[in-house]
Specification:
Elements lengths: L1 E4 L5 H15 L6 H5 L3 H14 L4 E8 L2 E10 L10 E8 L8 H15 L4 E7 L5 H6 L3 E10 L2 E11 L1
Parallel strand pairs: 4-5
Antiparallel strand pairs: 1-2, 2-3, 3-4, 5-7, 6-7
Helix pairs in contact: 1-3
Length: about 170
């Protein structure tokens, strides 16, 4: 296994992990129709844009096994919420289902955490669906629940937890 910074050529593989990650993590939370309509092409365009812009306040890391990208994490300056006491944000961590539980999530988590700290931010947060079966990972990594909010998705209102870390 290898962990490295993502490059623009990784967009397609990251999009694949992202879509499959959503489809497996949320299979009992969101409808099959909703999950099957998540567009690989839209995710690919999204990641092409992110990786080509090389924003100085965010980073994307990938986990590889035998040359194949099997997971990723992204994070940096907070973009999803205005929490004055939380400057950094862990945007996402996704690992292919067959590769979960092997320690890659922890390594990716620490890459983002260290990047945020190196940028002079003293804390970070993450937003996760309450029903996400992998939510406990963030608690294991020291995340403290600092808030809740509701999001409308797939025609229903779902609860989200906001976890925070002091760095």
């Amino acid at each position: 296994m290898n962990i490295r910074k993502a490059i623009s050529l990784d967009a397609e593989a990251i999009a694949n992990v992202h879509v499959k990650g959503w489809q497996t993590a949320y299979q009992n939370i969101l409808s099959e129709k909703f999950l099957s309509n998540i567009s690989f092409e839209n995710r690919k365009k999204f990641w092409e844009q992110i990786l080509s812009n090389s924003a100085p306040n965010q980073q994307v890391w990938v986990a590889e096994h035998e040359g194949k990208i099997i997971g990723f994490a992204s994070g940096g300056k907070a973009i999803n919420l205005q929490l004055p006491e939380y400057e950094g944000e862990l945007y996402a961590i996704y690992i292919l289902e067959s590769e979960r539980g092997k320690g890659m999530g922890e390594e990716l988590f620490y890459k983002i955490k260290n990047f945020i700290k190196e940028k002079g931010m003293n804390n970070m947060f993450l937003i996760v669906l309450k029903e996400n079966p992998y939510r406990k990972f963030y608690e294991k990594m020291g995340g403290i629940k600092i808030g809740e909010q509701t999001v409308k998705m797939d025609g229903k209102e779902l609860e989200e937890y906001i976890y925070g870390w002091k760095l």
